[in-house]
Amino acid sequence: MTRIAVIVFPGSNCEYDAAGALAQLGATTELVFHSATSLGDVDGVVLPGGFAHGDYLRPGALARFSPVMAAVSDFAAAGGPVLGVCNGFQVLTEAGLLPGALQKNRGLTFLCQPTTLIVSSTHSVLTRAATLGQELVIPINHFSGAYTCDDDTHASLVRHDQIVLRYRDNPNGSRDDIAGVANVAGNVVGLMPHPERAMSTLLGSADGRVLLEGFLGIGVAAP
Prior knowledge:
By secondary structure, the chain is an alpha/beta fold. The chain is built from five helices and eleven strands. It has helices at about 15-25, 70-75, 85-95, 150-160, 210-215, and strands at about 5-10, 30-35, 45, 80-85, 100-105, 110-120, 135-140, 145-150, 165, 180, 190.
């Protein structure tokens, strides 16, 4: 059975949502506090949403210095799957595990609403169970969610097929409608929308399942 570490920073508030969604898909989860220096024997890592360290300075800027991030970096470097959702995405960019940065939304408005995403690459652990061009309805909940990067970084993202999800109708001013990116290897992924909140049609959408199934390797052919 797949075992996933869900990292908890002071100010995280989506760790139980993430753990519950992964449990629905058959994974076992362990909450790992930010002061830990080891992840233990795990198959994947999730950095959940919230407001790590109160988003002081800027989102993720302090969390990147937490002791656990050295273990997360080592796990990622060894090819382990790492997923950052919302604030977790911000932490991964601040830690240098993903390119670019997240800035305040266009119009300086907090956004909490469903969004439609387009799968623009299946070459990542998050999107490998989806199909290219597939549309997914996934909610967002952020104030600093507009993805930004310089021209050289954007050209590299396109060249290496690292833009994994785009907004169909850009809600926040993200460059090139970007909702999620991966590292070159595809094992580290960050996205601003919350797939763990789209697990049932009773709550509006079950489209998050295909993303988390991909992350867990469910229904994915062995390479």
